[in-house]
Amino acid sequence: RCMDNYKQTILFIMIISSCAGMVCSCACSSNLKHCANIYQMPVDFQTAEQKCRDLGGQLSVQSNGSDKVVDYLIDNLIGHFWVGLHLPNEKCLSNTSTLREGEWTNLETEEAPCLPLCMSVSSDGTRTPRPCTDELDGFLCEDSQGDLCKGRAVVLDNARCTFAPCEHTCTPMKAGYKCSCKERFRTNARDPRRCDFYCATKVCEALCMRSGSACWCPAGFVRSDQNCEDVDECDSNHGCAHKCINTIGSYRCECYEPFILVNGTECTYVRSLYNGEVFTTPSPNYIARGALSTPGEYAGLIIFLVVAGFALLVLVHYLLGRKATVQKCNPSDSGEFQETVSNDNCI
Fold this sequence. Notes:
Blueprint: H1 2-17, E1 23-28, E2 35-43, H2 45-54, E3 58-59, H3 67-74, E4 80-86, E5 92-93, E6 99-100, E7 107-108, E8 117-122, E9 126-131, E10 136-142, E11 154-156, E12 169-173, E13 176-180, E14 185-187, E15 195-197, E16 203-205, E17 207-208, E18 215-216, E19 221-224, E20 227-230, E21 243-247, E22 250-254, E23 259-262, E24 266-269, H4 295-329, H5 343-346
Parallel strand pairs: 1-11, 4-10
Antiparallel strand pairs: 1-2, 2-10, 3-10, 4-8, 5-7, 6-9, 8-9, 11-13, 12-13, 14-15, 16-20, 17-18, 19-20, 21-22, 23-24
Protein name: Thrombomodulin
Membrane topology: Single-pass type I membrane protein
Main location: membrane
């Protein structure tokens, strides 16, 4: 009984950890192609963009498919939230200019220099350009794969639970439904309708048939008798450009400063938005320390140098042998080099 309480406590901590220090909620479209989180915390645009990237997503750019998701998330909220749009630095807007439905209007070029402008959205749907340095009430972060929601999303569907969309349990919600799973299972990170067997610790009991004839372990674990043990992906070909951090059942990549994580594994250098410089991406062989980007490239370079050195030794040995043969067939006191050599003596 104590062990069950312990596991429930760990699960609770895992659920709230991704929202630590902020209030968040998540929703997906009915086809799960558009998922977004709204995070409530005071941030400027650059901080919002960085936090969203750290979470594995990008600031929301509204489209026809994601409008319903955004409208659901900002409904009944008070405040203004950053989205993923900003104007060129040379463009300025009057203080009274506002935008609706993503239309950019009333652009003015002022004589005085102006700060970069970024887009915000309010609970009434109004889009308003603001200086990117302003601290707003939060930001909208989206991810087409659904990873940000970690299976906790509300799926927006007017049919709700009518057609039993959830693998285990379906709960009707406002404008949609939410799925939940039985003990020792959790909702799939990319498809909140599915349930996956999981382990909350590095070693857990395998899921076995009553007869014991077959057992299963979750992804990222290997079976050891009746238990499942976590695999350290960082010991294998994890694909991280800089640093690999092992987690329970998986791993994550991190980058050296001042690089940021892109696409889950790549590290990209980004110059500050506020100083007017553009975003730049280094070559694959360039990292924070000015060296090769991955251990595999180090190994490749070493192998190349060894092979090249061996080939050079073979060539030198051949040339020295050839020189000795020529000297044997052509004594030093001969007047000139003999082009024709007897086959019996010199071949």
